[in-house]
Amino acid sequence: MLGAAPAAISEASGRHIEYAALPVDAVRQWNDDLARMFEWFDRVGYDADIVGLPWLYREVDWHRFGTWAREQDWSAITVPATTQHTG
Predict the structure, then answer these.
(1) Which of 19, 27, 47, 83 is the most buried (most CB within 10 A)?
(2) Neighbour-count burial of 67, counting CB atoms closer than 10 A to its CB (0-12 exposed, 13-18 middle, 19+ buried)
(3) 59 part of a folded domain
(4) Residue 82 pLDDT
(5) Residue 80, domain member (yes or no)
(6) pLDDT value at position 78?
(7) What is the pLDDT of residue 51?
(8) Residues contacting 42, CB < 8 A, separation 6+
(9) What is the pLDDT of residue 76?
(10) How many structural domains does the chain have?
(11) What is the DSSP string of 44-63?
(12) What's the CA gap between 69 and 87, in Å, rounded?
């Protein structure tokens, strides 16, 4: 499942994108709340009724992630970063 999003962005942007997990301790050095959120995702997880949501919220213009990715302007990722976060 984690490979689906990078694959869709890779196809849409024309750049090779890979998923890379960050150790939670590295995240905690930057932001403790964010680290706790990621720990909760690992421990409890998050779930959504993807099939049922369109029936519950018919007014929403639902679309697939790949469709969303193709509609984005990915030109920003073709420019090298000029700043680096050091913690």
Answers:
(1) 27
(2) exposed
(3) yes
(4) 58
(5) no
(6) 72
(7) 92
(8) 24
(9) 83
(10) 1
(11) T-----TTTHHHH-TTS---
(12) 30
The answer to whether 85 touches 30, Cβ cutoff 8 Å, is yes
Q: Please identify which residue in the block is written with the tokens 């499942």.
A: 1
Decide if 27 is inside a domain: yes
55 token code pair? 């029936």
Whole-angstrom CA distances from 17 to 8, 56, 65, 68, 77 are 9, 33, 15, 16, 10
Asked if residue 19 belongs to a domain, the reply is yes
The DSSP 8-state label assigned to residue 70 in this structure reads H
pLDDT for 79 equals 64
- Give the length of the chain: 87
Q: Which domain holds residue 54?
A: 4-72
Phi and psi at 77, nearest 5°, equal: -85, -5
